[in-house]
Design a protein that fits this description.
Length: about 425
């Protein structure tokens, strides 16, 4: 019997009740963990999925109940002790206890940190502006409900940040008849994650839908209404001033790594873990958005903010905790829905030297392949589910491809994959 299997009756404590923490608890139970499992989450709600917060929940097409990750009955029948509305405030690695905000302490044998992240604060939003009743970040169900309640036809919405969250909110709000402006400090939207041609495509689609996109534009300050309760106007560094009924800032995420740092674990833009998701303390694992892990596919430390990665890491850590053999790492991927566009991005494009476009921007159906030395690093697919699935294999198996054939729609991607697999080296 392995060392891990010896400890299946130990106390497993998970901090964080996002999709990573919940998946870990259920996967561990299913993989044979017989000891007590405790989930500690600071949010008051029954744990829920976040992606709909900028999509169907925001537009009112999905109800809160449909976002639940598991039913309350399932926690009970799986003997998983779910504690919501309580914050873990410190970890004592000597005594192996987690202190909670309600003054109690929970002992553990194995601890998993799944603390996710929080919205990066906008420097221009000083205390007054951040407290204004019409100023929002978007991370929680409460944030999304607050924004949804203020999506009013004819009123103006200023979105700070042209990343996925900002653009999804723009699509939802313009559909509701709002006048929407997106302010992006970089020269193009989605600059951190896509090639210029994909950014240009998204800018065009949004503009055609009626969204004003202003790039290279930075927010300098906010002017409050006379009663000081609301933001009335947004001032930009260029001198441009925009009146606003609602402001949403989406400028990225800060990993919640403070608990880990306070108890002396290695932290560097996230909680640093090895390829087996272990922190510098072998009894403490970390998974999901809060984690910087060693990717065996890319050969370096990466931090990924995506549901599929969080679930993958949760299943892997649960398997390792239970002494099971685990599958090789999957290629990270992410999706975004805006208008009729289902974007699925697979892999990490940094370091690419060549971009190949396959398909048609005009017809809203294409894939952009990011290559380095004729190997595919990453692919953005728009409304192309089959190419998305094949791309995962092209990346994971480091299959060489011919760029000219890749661009040729007459050559099925499957053929390129098979041809590449048969090439030596
Ligand atoms: P989180 O979901 O952040 O959960 C962490 C939990 O831990 C939180 O509830 C937090 O309150 C809690 N916590 C933190 N510290 C403590 C503490 N000390 N004590 C107790 N509890 C604590 N991903 C996609 O793949 N596709 C999408 O389309 C997509 N859309 C998104 C849209 C929005 C609006 C947002 C906000 C995110 C979206 N994401 C999307 C990203 C995705 O939701 C995250 O990658 C995923 O939620 C990460 O899960 P997690 O469990 O690691 O962290």
């Amino acid at each position: 019997m392995s060392a891990a299997a010896d400890s299946l009756n130990d106390r497993l404590v998970v901090i964080g009740t996002g999709c990573a923490g919940i998946e870990l608890a259920f996967s561990a139970r299913n993989a044979g963990w017989t000891g007590p499992i405790t989930l500690i989450g600071e949010e008051p709600d029954n744990p829920y999925q976040r992606p709909p917060l900028s999509k169907a929940f925001l537009t009112g097409e999905a109800a809160a109940e449909s976002l639940q990750l598991r039913t309350a009955a399932l926690y009970k029948s799986s003997k998983i002790d779910l504690q919501t509305g309580v914050r873990a405030v410190s970890i004592d690695r000597e005594t192996k206890t987690v202190s909670l905000g309600d003054g109690t302490a929970t002992p553990y044998d194995r601890l998993v940190l799944a603390t996710g992240g929080r919205a990066r604060p906008l420097p221009a939003a000083e205390a007054d502006a951040a407290a204004a009743s019409n100023y929002f970040y978007l991370r929680t169900m409460a944030d999304s409900a607050g924004i949804r309640a203020r999506l009013t036809p004819g009123e103006s919405l200023v979105i700070v940040g042209g990343g996925y969250v900002g653009l999804e909110v723009a699509a939802a709000a313009v559909k509701r008849g709002m006048r929407v402006t997106v302010l992006e400090a970089a020269p193009r939207v989605l600059a951190r994650v896509t090639a210029p041609i994909v950014s240009g495509f998204y800018e065009k689609v949004h503009r055609e839908a009626g969204v004003e996109i202003l790039t290279g534009e930075q927010v300098e300050s906010f002017a409050l209404s006379q009663d000081g309760q609301r933001i009335a106007e947004v001032s930009c560094a260029s001198g441009r001033r925009l009146s606003a009924d609602l402001v949403v800032a989406g400028i990225g995420l800060l990993p919640n790594a403070e608990l880990a740092a306070q108890c002396g674990l290695a932290v560097d833009d996230g909680i640093v873990v090895d390829a087996g998701l272990r922190t510098s303390d072998p009894d403490i694992f970390a998974i999901g958005d809060c984690t910087r892990y060693f990717s065996t596919i890319y050969g370096r430390l990466v931090r990924i903010e995506s549901v599929p990665s969080a679930l993958e890491q949760a299943r892997k850590a649960a398997g390792l905790l239970c002494g099971k053999a685990v599958r090789p790492d999957a290629v990270p991927w992410f999706w975004s829905d805006q208008y009729d566009l289902n974007l699925k991005m697979v892999g990490l494009s940094s370091g690419y030297d060549h971009l190949v476009l396959r398909g048609s921007l005009e017809q809203h159906s294409f894939s952009a392949f990011y290559l380095a030395d004729n190997r595919v690093l990453a692919v953005d697919t728009v409304n192309r589910p089959v190419e998305f699935n094949l791309s995962k294999r092209l990346i994971a198996e480091h299959i060489p491809v011919d760029a000219t054939l890749l661009a040729d729609e007459a050559v099925p991607l499957k053929h390129l994959l098979e041809a590449g697999q048969n090439q030596p080296g």
